[in-house]
Amino acid sequence: MKYKFNRFEHKILSQDESLKRGNEFYELMNRRRSIRHFSPKSFDRSLIEIAVKTAGTAPSGANKQPWKFIIIESPDIKKQIRISAEKEEKESYERRMPESWLEDLAPLGTDWHKEFLEIAPYLIAVFKIDFLKSDNEIKKHYYVNESVGIATGILLASLQNMGLVTLTHTPSPMNFLQKILNRPSNEKPYLLIPVGYPAENTEVPDILRKSLTEICELL
Q1: Above 90 in pLDDT, residue 199?
Q2: Do residues 41 and 69 touch, judged by C-beta distance below 8 A?
Q3: 10 occurs within a structural domain
Q4: Is residue 187 part of a domain?
Q5: What is the torsional sign of CA 16, 22, 26, 29?
Q6: Is the entire prediction scored with pTM above 0.90?
Q7: What's the CA gap between 147 and 65, in Å, rounded?
């Protein structure tokens, strides 16, 4: 298939406006934190759908858009996910993780208990799609991890912009998500994201982010 090409319309902003927007967005995102204590307070699912739609604008290898976002609000499914996730997490904390990893996690106060998976009003399960099968033909996707990673970053920024809080949760292995959510074999679990509002009096670790000079070099 050959794409039709359209003229690209773009408005160039003044330097002052660009700087203002850049700083405002930085301040918004600098307030983003990983939240593990959620309020059960509900909100309209359309907010999640807008964020997913925004994530779908991400660039992807050969425009294959190799992602699927499953929005979960069913209490029964959330309970199944929590039980399976805690089983894997308990095994990881007690047997799989090396001592150095546990030492790095200790200041954050995390453990294998993941009650937020039931308390948060929504979970978003992100799947990556390595290939499509059509008429017995395998159609490969390209730069799948990179593409899904970019889309997930846009998803998190969109949710932050709407005043919601999130957690990027990665119980490993995550094969249970494929089974519980009845996903096809070409879809692989990538990330599990609880979404909602913080519980009252929620506290987060007093961490520091690396400075610009630590993460950026000019050549």
Answers
A1: yes
A2: no
A3: no
A4: yes
A5: positive
A6: yes
A7: 7
Cβ–Cβ < 8 Å for 194, 202:
no
Average model confidence (pLDDT) across the chain: 96
pLDDT, tens only, 122-152: 999 999 999 998 778 899 999 999 999 999 9
- Distance CA(37)–CA(34), nearest Å, equals 9
> What whole-number distance in Å separates Cα of residue 126 and Cα of residue 149?
10
* CATH code: domain of residue 173: 3.40.109.10
